[in-house]
Amino acid sequence: MTLHNLVKKRSYLFWSTKNYKGLSKEAVLEGVLNYGTMKDVQEVFSILGMNNAANIFYKQIKNKRNNYRPEIKNYFKLYFKKYTPR
């Protein structure tokens, strides 16, 4: 499966746009982590790779303003800390 196929299949996660082809991998990861199920999260990790997803996530949360809900941000900080070597 590709990132584009995942977005097409789970278009309800990206309710703010209809330009699904124009979504960056950062936007897709953010949408899936914020609004997806754990199955969706596992799919995006299998497409992007766990380490790549963690790198994208950490880069996003370094910004003072980001779109992650506080509980999601905290959960995935703990998740990546446990499952990705740093």
Summarize the structure.
This protein is an all-alpha fold and 86 residues long.
Tell me about this structure:
This protein is mainly alpha-helical. It has one domain. The chain is 65% helix and 0% strand. The chain starts with a helix and ends with a helix. The mean pLDDT is 91.
User: Could you spell the SSE succession in H and E letters?
Assistant: HHHHH
Radius of gyration: 12 Å
The percent range for helix content is 55-70%
Q: How many E-type strands?
A: 0
Oligomer: single chain
What is the number of independent domains?
1
Judged by helices, strands and strand pairing, the structural class is mainly alpha
Strand content: under 5%
Give the averaged pLDDT, no decimals.
Answer: 91
- The N- to C-terminal Cα distance equals 27 Å
Tally of contiguous helical segments: 5
Q: What are the segments in which pLDDT stays under 50 over at least 5 consecutive residues? A: none
